[in-house]
Amino acid sequence: MQRFFDMNHRDQPSFSLITDHNKIINYGRNSPDSSHYRQHPIAFGVMSDGTAMIDRFDSRLRASSGSREFSIHNMNAERSANSVSLYTPQFVRERTGTNEYGVEVVVRGADRDAVQNFGFGEVIEGTVETVGSYGQPGNSRIPSTGFVLSGHGDGADHLRHLSPGDSVRIEASIDSKWRDAELMLGSGPQLVRNGQVDVSMDLNSWRAQQVTERAAVGVSRDGQEVFMVTTRNMNMLQLAEHMKNLGAHSALNFDGGGSLHSWVDKTIIYVL
C-alpha cells in the first residue's frame, strides 16, 4: 500500500481517489495542468475477479433539491475557489475547517449507515437545517446523521437557493468499468499504455525532469501480474521506460519522497 499526501495538509491525501468496494475513502482532485502529475483522472484498481487494471475513470458527485441540480467538486477535503465541497462524518475533523468567505448548508436526517459508507452507486438524502450567509463564520459542525455542503464563489450561488426544510439528495457515480472494483488508488501520470511509453504529463516540466526517488505500479496485459517498483535516481521518462522493460502493459506513477510508505499486514516495510 502506498500514499500520496498533500504535505501542507498531512491528514488529507488530497489528489488520490481511494475506494474500498465502491466506498469513497478519499475523493481526490485533478492537478491544474500538464506540468503537474495528475491532470487526468487515472487509477490502479483490483477488480472483483482478482485481476488488476490501470485506466482512466469518470467520477461524479451531484446534488439535487427539487428541480435544481448542481455539481459537487470535492468531498471531505479543503474547500477550493468557485466550488462546492461535501463534508460527511467520515471527514478527519468534526468541523469543516472553512472560513467566512462562503456559504454553508447543514443537512440532517440522513441514514447513519448511508453517510458513514457513502460510495459510488449510492445516494444520501436529508433535510436542510440551516443555510449560512456569506461573511458569517464557517467551520460548521458535521452532523453524525447528515452532511454539510460548503460553497465558495460560483459554488456559493447554488447553495443560496436552498432553504431550511428543503430535501437535498447527493449521488455519487463512476463509469461502468470501475463499478466492480474492490480497490481503487488514483495517481499519475500514466507511464505506459497499451505496452508503449505514454506519459500523461509534460515531460519538459521540472517535475518530470527531476532525477529523484520514484515509485510506480504496473499491470500485465491480462491483469494477472502487478509490478510494484521503487527507485532512487530516475526522471519520469526513465521510469516509464523501466516499467515497459519490466513487461508492464500499463503503468502508473506513484509518489516518491517522504510521503510514500509501503506496508504489509499493518507493518511498514519501506519508506522512500
Brief synopsis:
With 272 residues, this protein is mainly beta. Helices cover 10% and strands 40% of the residues.
Structure explained in plain terms:
By secondary structure, the chain is mostly beta strands. The protein has 2 domains: 18-25 and 182-271, no CATH class; 60-174, no CATH class. Helices cover 10% and strands 40% of the residues. The protein contains 4 helices and 20 strands. The protein has helices at 112-116, 154-159, 206-209, 236-246; strands at residues 18-20, 23-26, 42-47, 52-56, 59-65, 68-71, 74-75, 84-87, 103-108, 123-131, 146-151, 167-174, 181-187, 190-193, 196-197, 212-219, 226-234, 250-254, 261-264, 267-271. It has an 8-stranded mixed sheet with strand order 6-5-12-10-9-11-8-7. Strands 2-1-13-3-4 form a 5-stranded antiparallel sheet, with no helix packed on it. A hairpin with a 2-residue loop joins strand 1 and strand 2. The model is unreliable at 1-10 (pLDDT under 50).
